Structure of Probable leucine-rich repeat receptor-like protein kinase At1g35710:
Amino acid sequence: MARIPFSSLSFTFIFVISIFNLAHCKTLKRDVKALNEIKASLGWRVVYAWVGDDPCGDGDLPPWSGVTCSTVGDYRVVTELEVYAVSIVGPFPTAVTSLLDLTRLDLHNNKLTGPIPPQIGRLKRLKILNLRWNKLQDAIPPEIGELKSLTHLYLSFNSFKGEIPKELANLPDLRYLYLHENRLMGRLPPELGTLQNLRHLDVGNNHLVGTIRELIRIEGCFPALRNLYLNNNYFTGGIPAQLANLSSLEILYLSYNKMSGILPSTVAHIPKLTYLYLDHNQFTGRIPEHFYKHPFLKEMYIEGNAFRPGANPIGLHKVLEVSDSDFLV
């Protein structure tokens, strides 16, 4: 009879023991307590799918719907919570902030009300925070600036008011920032320009004021920015020639503001500029020929301004919206 090498036996034994331990890991009591508190506050639409006492499953029962767990040492912890489009009614569940291992929190398309609690800053491992399409109110808590791992922040389609906290500039890995369709006021903090990885900034449909010059006053700002949505606000002033320094820019959406002045030819030298929306402002003068010769510019919409006769749009205008889901990766 052939002998099985000792090394193979050792590996098999260790593998079996590991699988046994994995199957019998307990969920951290902190996370069990937090999820059961959330379960008690969310209402029947979620509760019917959350069966058993352990959100990570207890052997006979699977994990709760929308709950993802991982094994850390001898315990399981909750790393993702996705409960969206189930008409949750009521205040933001503060117990969520006790799930300290969360990397993704997605409660979008519900009917959550009230403020985001400042305890949100406890979720240091959070990468994706999606609260869009709710009825959340009050100011955006500056404590979000403590979420150093955050890459995606979706707060659009709520009723947030007050100013955009400059603390958002403390998020070194932030790539996508969606704040459109709220009631935000004041100026855009220029500190956002220091975000080295920010690709998409959308603050459209708010009550913001100020100028583009103020926003880009920091040298070397917005090095990775591709999409800048400032539409439907109260921005004034002109388009500064320095905007051409945003060499990664592809979409510039300035529609429905109170901007004025001429269109500087330097903007036509942004190498990948593809969509330029200037409509319904107070721009004047000629449109430089460079824009009509740009190799990538597909759409330039100019309606509702005071450009000189002979100025023509480029392409067929359509409302340009980038789906949030395109970036939820």
